[in-house]
Specification:
2 copies of one chain form a homodimer.
Chain A: E1 3-9, H1 11-15, H2 17-29, E2 33-38, H3 43-50, E3 57-58, E4 61-62, H4 66-90, E5 95-98, E6 106-110, E7 122-127, H5 130-137, E8 141-144, E9 147-149, E10 155-157, H6 160-170, E11 176-182, E12 201-202, H7 204-212, H8 220-231, E13 237-241, E14 254-256
Parallel strand pairs in A: 1-2, 1-11, 2-8, 5-8, 11-13, 12-14
Antiparallel strand pairs in A: 3-4, 6-7, 9-10, 13-14
Chain lengths: ~260, ~260
């Protein structure tokens, strides 16, 4: 089986024009089949503020009402996605932007309103590989934003880390899939202040212990849950670290086992 | 050669939720290869107003500064395009949203700033059919918004009628292309107040005479220029009329000859 790399970039890379351009320049040079998944960064909140729309949070998580879904669709699928595609074309990487609705690729269920109504948020139900695979076979790189749909015409806001892991799992029947989460740290850190304190290999027992000790907390928990979900569902390799890990094998990072 | 229908829908269909849904339901049933091109309607101006951004016009035409380009990209490629794709999926029409940057499909030159600086507006230079054709062959329907790029990473605002005619011309080397401009009237009218006064067939001589008499004016002039450009560049058939002309051959419309 051929290898397919699924690479997710997060907030800090998206929010910084130079960091994004530098990443995309490198990404364009990666050989073989690849899929890029991007988050939204702070641009959606900025647009909501410009439009005087309140950002509603419950338990620290954003509620996606109809106006918020419009903003997310405009920012993620419009501004961010199309600018990434245009940049990749300028680096001779032929790409096509995707939401989960395009090619009917990622189908979600709207999250149940009980106990908390998160609004138009989708939990991934299934991945259809067919349309994307036609493009991969044609040497085209799909670029996914974090939006899915319910097959009844409704777009849904979906976590970008989850999109990346579900794509890696879905494509594992056709490719040896490798999943890379790129963010601003070197991976899982024993001391969040010390970028050299990387846990280079982590398995579910180490994860459990680090969780119990409170070393791993907050945003790293759902990210690592996505990692372990992927590695236990036929994804060949899962790594977390800075984008540099893609281009230099000596860059420290965390590998999930 | 197989037939490829390129169908463009304009402002009044986009702005009305029911009209759009009804159109898409019909569009989904059209057999054979097809491409949808959509304009932006009034939503971009509405968003600019919500964000307190001034709409700058020169000689009745919109100037696309950087903020306006962002708005257009968000509204056209984000909100409108992804909602159309999600609706088409719900009608079992497998579609993928495109800007001209996706698949490097439509490359434009930024319009010269002399005599008038229109800002980030693109004049189409060339159409690359390859990526879109991979999808057409896979029975997938591309849905184009009116944005192109310059191959150097810059997105450009481009007239939707022009996108449709340039796609029809570009694909004429692979398909018998048929171009349909759908709007709120039955076609070219001798009396703009009378929807029965349709000019059913129009050639360049009739066009010239109607222009000189002032019967054809304003927005119809660039639309018809696009039509004649297409019909003189290997497009098999060009029609203007209401969307109903696609589904009922007895619907009055104008055919370009």
């Amino acid at each position: 089986m051929e290898t397919l790399k699924i690479i997710k970039i997060g907030g800090n890379v998206i929010d910084n024009v130079e960091a994004l351009e530098s990443f995309l320049k490198g990404f364009a040079t990666i050989q073989g089949s690849k899929i890029l998944v991007h988050g939204g960064g702070k641009l959606a909140t900025k647009l909501a503020n410009q439009m005087n729309l309140p950002v509603k949070m419950t338990n620290g998580r954003r509620i996606t009402d109809a106006n918020t879904l419009d903003i997310i669709t405009m920012v993620y699928a419009g501004k961010i996605n199309k600018n990434i595609v245009a940049k990749l074309q300028s680096y001779q990487c032929n790409s096509v932007g995707f939401s989960g609705a395009d090619g009917n690729t990622i189908v979600s269920n709207k999250r149940p309103v009980d106990p908390i109504d998160f609004g138009y948020v989708g939990d991934v139900k299934l991945v259809n590989t067919e349309t994307v695979d036609i493009l991969l076979k044609g040497n085209v790189t799909p670029v996914f934003c974090a939006i899915t749909h319910d097959e009844n015409g409704q777009l849904l806001n979906t976590n970008a880390d989850t999109i990346a892991s579900e794509l890696a799992i879905g494509f594992s029947k056709l490719y040896k899939t490798q999943l890379y989460y790129c963010f601003e740290k070197n991976g899982v850190l024993l001391d969040i202040e010390n970028d050299d304190s990387v846990v280079e290999n982590i398995d579910s027992e180490i994860y459990k212990a680090l969780k119990e000790d409170g070393v791993i907390a907050d945003g790293m928990l759902p990210k690592l849950d996505n990692c372990f979900h992927a590695i236990s569902h036929n994804v060949e390799k899962v790594c977390i670290g800075k984008p540099e890990m893609l281009f230099d094998e000596n860059t420290k990072h965390t590998t999930i086992q």
